[in-house]
Amino acid sequence: MQTIEILERLVGFPSVVGTPNGGIVGWIRQYLQNYGIAATELPGPEGDRSNLFATIGPRETPGYILSGHVDVVPAAEGGWSSDPFRLRAETDRLYGRGTTDMKGFLAVVLAAVPALAAIRLRRPIHLAFSYDEEAGCRGVPHMIARLPELCAHPLGAIIGEPSGMRAVRAHKGKAAARLTVRGRSGHSSRPDRGLNAIHAMTEVLACASAEAERLTQGPFEHVFEPSYSSLQVGTLKGGQAVNIIPDSCEAEFEARAISGIDPATLLEPLRVAAEALPQRGFQVEWRELSAYPALSLAADAPLTRLLGELTGIEPLAAVSYGTEAGLFQRAGIEAIICGPGDIARAHRPDEFILASEIQACQSMIEALARRCTV
């Protein structure tokens, strides 16, 4: 199958984050089996979605991972010119949900499988496809934990997130959490008989605002924009009507951390503020939603040099968005971002990838295969 045909099949699976992915995983597994490649399906604790791992070449020899996620963000927003789960070609643009983030990369990798399977690789090329990346990289940690039994320790992982085929060495880490505050409802004319959950939440919101301002004072890592860690309130929900004391309020918080800082620690002052509320009769629930570490690969690292040679482009120091790369690095595997597409097109109506970007990714994988045969 050609790359565009494979991309059409992948886009046709509405593999929205947080939903069962048996359809797309099963199709990829069967596709690999058709070329004699045995893939290991690695179910997550959710029970209805899986990671997929496969090796082409000698499993006992250190090689390289090509990593991508099969999930996509929802496509319910308005503004689509056509069915988001049906590939549409227009000049050199290929439209559809996930074309650039990141089924375009998956399609290129899968299209290369027949050629990779037919040559004698001295170093293996591993395919690592994860689930629920769009929910904070929830799937890939389960796969990384299984790598020691699946292959020799890899030399590096190439994360195919959209980067315009320019390798990227660093990104910030991220943590997110949801706080629910429950009070006691009643008529607004008798606030003395109720517990206003929104009023209680404002204490945590004030803490979040103060922490966000404090972080602007450093420490700094100047490869990033902004150069400091950040924190924000992302969502806020509560109340039923203006004349009812709100008995619940929910907020979601997000922190992004520069290298060397655990992003979860940035949310800790908010959690402490929340835990003081039960002293006044409120109930609180603090739930961690996601967390992944920053990526920081040295400019002179072997994987940095390799990707510069494979693409012919000097690797970029850093990007603002996050990926699974930091999780591979935390496991002791060098990781770098390099994939087709533009992150500015992701998570938007009429998402698209260029045919020329697909071709550039094909060239990179072909160059990697040549390196793995010598």
Report strand order across the widest sheet: 1-2-6-3-7-16
Indicate the proportion of strand residues: 15-25%
**What do the pLDDT scores average to?**
97
Describe the main β-sheet briefly: 6 strands, mixed
Task: Give the SSE string.
Answer: HHEEEEEHEHEEEEHEEEHHEEHHEEH
Q: By helix and strand content, what is the structural category?
A: alpha+beta
Radius of gyration: 23 Å
Total DSSP E strands: 17
Shape: elongated
**SS element count, helices:** 10
| Relative helix content | 25-40%
Pfam family, one: Peptidase_M20
GO molecular function, one term: acetylornithine deacetylase activity
Protein name: Acetylornithine deacetylase
Keywords: Amino-acid biosynthesis, Arginine biosynthesis, Cobalt, Cytoplasm, Hydrolase, Metal-binding, Zinc
Kindly describe this structure:
The chain has 374 residues and is α+β, with helices and mostly antiparallel strands. Helices cover 31% and strands 23% of the residues. The protein is built from ten helices and 17 strands. It has helices at 3-11, 22-33, 99-118, 140-150, 197-215, 263-266, 268-275, 302-311, 325-330, 355-371, and strands at 39-43, 50-56, 64-69, 88-90, 93-95, 125-130, 156-159, 170-171, 173-182, 186-187, 230-238, 244-245, 248-257, 283-292, 295-296, 335-337, 352-354. The strands form five sheets. The chain has a six-stranded mixed β-sheet. A four-stranded antiparallel β-sheet has the order 11-13-9-14. A hairpin with a 2-residue loop joins strand 4 (88-90) and strand 5 (93-95). Helix 1 (3-11) packs across helix 3, helix 3 (99-118) packs parallel to helix 10 and helix 5 (197-215) packs antiparallel against helix 7 (268-275). The longest helix has 20 residues, at 99-118. It is elongated, with a radius of gyration of 23 Å.
